[in-house]
Amino acid sequence: MFLQEGEGSEPTVVLSPSPTSGLYIRTRGGKLTKVSIPADCLAFQTGEALEVATGGKLRATPHCVRAGSSPEAGKISRETFALFMQPDTSQQLSPSQTFGQFSQRVFDEHYDTKST
Q: DSSP 3-state assignment of 21?
C-alpha cells in the first residue's frame, strides 16, 4: 500500500509512484520478478528457518523491495506490516541444529560481530 502525505489532512491511499517500485522475489529459476499483492489479500513469505525445519519441503523465498523514482515520490510512503514468527532458541530445527544455533550462524553471515 502506498500513502501520500496530505496538506494538513490524513494521508490518502495512492497508486505506486513508479512502475518499478515494490516487492520482488527470486524465482526458482533465478529470475528476479516483481510481484503485486492485491489490497484485500495477505502474502506469506517463507523464511530459511522454516525451510530447515521442514527438511526443504517448504522453501525460503529470496526477496527485496525496490524504490523507483518519480517527482512526487518524496511525499509517498510504502506501507507494510511484517509479522515475524519464530520458535524458542532451544527448539530443534533439524537433528543437528537448534533455532538458536541457526540464528547465530545467520547473524555471523550477515553482521560483523567481531568489531563490537
A: coil
